[in-house]
Each structure stands twice: as structure tokens, then as C-alpha cells.
């Protein structure tokens, strides 16, 4: 896969939605790919599609990222295969929906493992080599949820606030190293995300015109290549992210609760 030293992009959550669209964009630009997800059949199908259509190398790694050992296993497998990762896309993530005291504890702990711990762990592992070689890019998928508290999705919103804060901090630390880190903060997006969170009936998404996954990925991809630290796709989302800074937090929380409730 590395014989001609094409650049390689590793993408988690690559079997659908924003992750798949990112993979397609990198493939179109001639990158080799490492695709990580749990869906064996879907990943193999995508790998075959991209190899035949774009003439690139594709390595698939089947991992459940809620398993704490997954990041180290991914890193070790790539080291043993002599695959150097030039771009890391930490896209995998999911949400839970409902009252915090009623949601299953294990579901929320798995959310934290995937959205925060796995993302941090993978970043730590691959960033060291990027800094040594003086080049590399990382994109962490956060959300407009990162900018305010989120009643009925309390743990998810908090996890994305972590991703945004973490990304901005290490982006500052990495200035002058040749490595850039970007936080992509999309609003509601057409993907399997809402179905998995069982929130299709919430006012936030039900009956709303929301961005497609390919549009979000394209905006994020451009921002990554331009070394932007924070990318918020869409004027409406940008206004939302800015407006909460000037609104009392208690009011923001009430407004978010109202949007999250079912119609």
C-alpha cells in the first residue's frame, strides 16, 4: 500500500454518513485509505468500490471503538503493516437521547468512550509521528452542539464541547510544527445519526431542511486543507454558534431543551 508513498488518510466511522463522504473525497484526490468501522460487509463493499474506481490502496479495519483497546490495536496493526498515516479523521461518534436519569448507563459510557476517549487516544498515538515528520493533518468531528448545553442529550453535547475545546487547544500547541488540527462543527446532518439516537421526532430535525453528509464533508475537507482550526458549515449554524456567546446561559439551555423535545 505504501510502495509509491501516496499520502494515506485514516477515517473512523467510515461505513456511512460523513465518514463515507470524507473517504470518497480523499479517494478522489488519490489518497490511500484506512477505513475503520464495525460493519464488515459495508466496509468491504466500499473498499472494492474505491479501489476499482480510483485506483488507490484501501485497508479496512473492523473495530468496535467503544472497546478501550481499539485505538492501540489500530495503531499497532498499521505499524506492523508499515503504513504511515498522514491524515487522521476522527469521525466516529454517536448520541443518546432522553432524560439523563432514564438513559441506560452503559450506552452513555460507550458514548464517552467513542466520542472522547477513543478520539483522544487515536490523536495522541498518530500525532507523535506527525510531529516527528513535520507534517500531518487531523480533523475531529465535533458539532454545533459543542457551543451550548443540551438538555435531553446532555452527555452528547458535553462530549462535543470537549472535542472542540481539545482541538482548539492542541491546534495552538502545534503552531509551527507543520501539523494542523481542525474541529468540524456541523449542525443536524442527513445520515443514520438521528435514527441511532432515536430522535427523529425531535423539533430539531423533524420536518427541518438539514444539510447532506456530502455537503458537510466537502466543507470540512476544504477547511482541513486550508489548516482552519474551527469549521462550522452553513450560515445558519455559524449564526447559532456565535449567538449563544451573547445570550444568558440559562436562556440558551431552555431554548435548546425546547428544540430537542418531540413535536
Automatic annotation (TrEMBL):
The keyword Metal-binding does not apply. Keywords: Oxidoreductase. Belongs to the short-chain dehydrogenases/reductases (SDR) family. PANTHER family: DEHYDROGENASE/REDUCTASE SDR FAMILY MEMBER 7B (PTHR44196), SHORT-CHAIN DEHYDROGENASE-RELATED (PTHR44196:SF2). This is SDR family oxidoreductase.
Amino acid at each position: 500500500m505504501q510502495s509509491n508513498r501516496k499520502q494515506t488518510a485514516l477515517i473512523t466511522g467510515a461505513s456511512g454518513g460523513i465518514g463515507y463522504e470524507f473517504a470518497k473525497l480523499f479517494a478522489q484526490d488519490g489518497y490511500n485509505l484506512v477505513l475503520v468501522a464495525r460493519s464488515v460487509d459495508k466496509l468491504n463493499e466500499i473498499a472494492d468500490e474505491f479501489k476499482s474506481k480510483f485506483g488507490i490502496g484501501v485497508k479496512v479495519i473492523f473495530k468496535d471503538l467503544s472497546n478501550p483497546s481499539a485505538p492501540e490495536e489500530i495503531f499497532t496493526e498499521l505499524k506492523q503493516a508499515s503504513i504511515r498515516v498522514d491524515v487522521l479523521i476522527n469521525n466516529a461518534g454517536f448520541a443518546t437521547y432522553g432524560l439523563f436519569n432514564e438513559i441506560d448507563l452503559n450506552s452513555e459510557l460507550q458514548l464517552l468512550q467513542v466520542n472522547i476517549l477513543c478520539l483522544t487516544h487515536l490523536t495522541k498515538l498518530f500525532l507523535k509521528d506527525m510531529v516527528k515528520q513535520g507534517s500531518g493533518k487531523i480533523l475531529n468531528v465535533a458539532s454545533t452542539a459543542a457551543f451550548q448545553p443540551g438538555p435531553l442529550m446532555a452527555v452528547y453535547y458535553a462530549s462535543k464541547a470537549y472535542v472542540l475545546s481539545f482541538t482548539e487547544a492542541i491546534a495552538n500547541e502545534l503552531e509551527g510544527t507543520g501539523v494542523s488540527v481542525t474541529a468540524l462543527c456541523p449542525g443536524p446532518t442527513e445520515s443514520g445519526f438521528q435514527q441511532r439516537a432515536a430522535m427523529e421526532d425531535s423539533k430539531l430535525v423533524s420536518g427541518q431542511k438539514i444539510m447532506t453528509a456530502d455537503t458537510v464533508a466537502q466543507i470540512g475537507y476544504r477547511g482541513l486543507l486550508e489548516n482552519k482550526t474551527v469549521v462550522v458549515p452553513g450560515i445558519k449554524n455559524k449564526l447559532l454558534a456565535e449567538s449563544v456567546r451573547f445570550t444568558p446561559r440559562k436562556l440558551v439551555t431552555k431554548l435548546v431543551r425546547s428544540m430537542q423535545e418531540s413535536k
